[in-house]
Write a structure and sequence with these properties.
This protein has about 400 residues and is an alpha/beta fold. It has 15 helices and 13 strands.
Length: about 400
């Protein structure tokens, strides 16, 4: 039967998410410490978890409205107003989705025609090329180059053609941790205005910034009405399994996203929507505690890797650190990650799965440090064995 699968399906199988599944299975089979997938192995703030339990106990257990419950839409609008000075009407310009992923899917399916092109930066979050392909569009990449992960503005200009419809900007960025600077965002914004492009921004790490300042692309001149601003609660409150996300945009763009979204999940996660409304209503304190704690984990893990002789590209935000294994051992990242579970009992991801152009990624390995101290220390202890045995 599988030889009759559409070609698109085979293409999607080469992308990161399926690589994570393979690596996670390998982690289980070998008893490895799994630093492959980006989710915390600890819980979010207790007051946020209690809000979900309360919502279930109070009977918020049936379908929510398609746009999401109004208290959450109000909380999202208020969050954007207070934090970034961005005004969105909760009735018409905010849409609650099944995680940021569904907001991305809805936006790309709503706004792309078959044959259109979508510009994105590589390394990319693997859903972007997959969703573009599902919409019948193709993608073009602009490479972020280590160690600063900056891009060549000429390459960005060249990536935009007469067929370009969308540009996707993920800042703070997975997997590099780059926080795009105001100057870089201003360049992207002026190109969008000049070439009449729609921007989709993925800001799921907006609260997990350790260095630099996150500024939404929608705050730049000419961008408010041509940007779909996407985020979610999963990273902000360490509740990735809740899958509550949102998209904010001018009412005409948002209506288009809603039109696609209603045939994806229609709606979901009623008690979690209530809990996230409560969590956002608590102000910045819960999110700040999550960020401070994660920064500590980043430092502990990156320091530990450096002590073991790894060349670490320290992230300014988010869940992941990269190392360049070619700089220290002469091996490529794919071989390193393929051997790591059996040799050291640790799973990490070769970063080339996030690139179209494999060369800049040849030595890069991605490690998730959003893990308990015990998990991180055990991974470092096992990798120390690597230093002795290699
Ligand atoms: C850049 C980026 N966007 C979107 C998502 C998915 O977010 P959600 O779980 O809210 O769908 C992730 C999750 O890892 C991510 O890293």
């Amino acid at each position: 039967m599988t030889d009759r699968l559409p070609r698109l399906n085979s293409r999607l199988q080469g992308l990161g998410t399926t690589v994570f599944a393979t690596m996670s299975a390998l982690a289980e089979a070998t008893g490895s410490v799994n630093l492959g997938q980006g989710f915390p192995d600890y819980d979010g703030p207790p007051e946020v978890l209690e809000a979900a339990q309360e919502a279930i106990a109070s009977g918020h257990n049936q379908y929510p409205p398609g746009r999401g419950i109004l208290p959450l839409r109000r909380a999202v609008a208020e969050h954007h107003r207070q934090r970034y000075g961005l005004e969105f009407d909760p009735e018409r310009e905010v849409l609650v989705t099944a995680g940021a992923t569904e907001a991305l899917a809805g936006a790309i399916l709503a706004l792309c025609e078959v044959g259109d092109e979508v510009v994105m930066f590589e390394p990319y979050y693997d859903a972007y090329p997959a969703l573009a392909a599902m919409a019948g569009a193709s993608h073009r990449v602009v490479t972020l180059r280590p160690p600063r992960w900056d891009f060549d503005p000429t390459e960005l200009r060249r990536a935009v053609t007469a067929r370009t419809r969308l540009i996707i900007v993920n800042s703070p960025h997975n997997p590099t941790g780059k926080v795009f600077t105001d100057a870089e965002l201003a360049q992207i914004a002026s190109l969008c205005v000049e070439r009449d492009l729609i921007a989709i921004t993925d800001e799921v790490y907006e609260h997990l910034v350790f260095e630099g300042t996150h500024r939404p692309l929608a705050t730049f001149e000419g961008m408010r009405d041509r940007t779909v601003t996407i985020s979610s609660a999963g990273k902000t409150f360490s509740v990735t399994g809740w899958k509550v996300g949102w998209a904010c945009a001018s009412s005409d763009l948002l209506q288009a996203v809603l039109t696609a979204k209603q045939f994806l999940t229609f709606a979901g996660g009623t008690p979690f929507q209530h809990a996230v409304a409560t969590a956002l209503g608590m102000g910045d304190s819960a999110a700040e505690a999550v960020c401070k704690d994660l920064r500590w984990r980043r430092d502990r893990f990156c320091d530990g890797l450096r002590e073991l002789g790894f060349a670490v590209l320290e992230p300014a935000s988010g869940y992941f650190a990269m190392t360049d294994v070619s700089a220290t051992g002469g091996v490529d990242a794919t071989s390193f990650c393929a051997e790591a579970p059996r040799r050291f009992g640790v799973v990490a991801i070769p970063a080339d799965v996030f690139f179209d152009h494999k060369a800049p990624a040849a030595g890069l390995v991605r490690w998730a440090y959003c893990k308990t101290t015990a998990t991180l220390d055990e991974a470092l202890r096992r990798l120390a064995g690597r230093a002795e045995s290699s």
